[in-house]
Specification:
173 residues; mainly beta; Immunoglobulin-like; 10 strands; p23-like; Hsp90 protein binding
Length: 173
């Protein structure tokens, strides 16, 4: 019996990115059709295999894959638009969202770990900005006002009465 690898996916309006979490795959077989992807291979003596029926058709001729580190696919959508899921049918436990590459419609214009189609791999530019050391103003940097000044009077609750009562305190002058 074959195992199912984790498959991470993300999308852009015109494409879908898949990462199959397998390293150093041997005897790999890939069958890519406009409506389906099938893949099998061996890693450390274990057999892996999966098949996905895509949510919508892709352009097979414009799609690519690589096996440099992990198995990665760039799938060109036949029609631009958002897919509500990667596959037809119900949720598959081994298919997960790739949050590093995911781009919502409100993220448009931002660069998210772009998929390197030329080398078909790599992580793109890593930005370590915003990890401290900024001299920007932060509301947490404000000085807080002192608590109420000590007037020598405190409030206390009496036994059964719910109303606070003023109680004079002796000063240690």
């Amino acid at each position: 019996m074959s195992l199912k690898p984790d498959v991470l996916w993300a999308q852009r309006p015109d494409s879908v990115y898949l990462t199959v979490d397998l390293k150093d795959v041997q005897d790999m077989k890939v069958n890519l059709e406009s409506t389906k992807l099938s893949m099998s291979g061996k890693v450390n003596g274990n057999s892996y295999e999966f098949s996905l029926d895509f949510f919508a058709p892709i352009k097979r001729e414009e799609s690519k894959f690589t096996t440099k580190r992990l198995v990665e696919f760039y799938l060109k959508k036949e029609d631009d638009g958002e897919w509500t899921s990667l596959q037809k049918g119900g949720k598959l436990p081994w298919v997960k969202v790739d949050w590093k590459r995911w781009q919502d419609s409100d993220d448009e214009g931002e660069t998210k770990a772009a998929f390197n189609q030329d080398g078909m791999g790599g992580m793109g530019d890593m930005n370590f900005g915003g990890m401290g050391g900024d001299d920007e103003y932060d509301s947490d940097d404000e000085d807080l006002p002192d608590l109420e000044p000590d007037t020598g009077v405190s409030t206390a609750m009496s036994g059964g009465d719910d109303a606070p009562q003023k109680v004079e305190t002796d000063s240690l002058d």
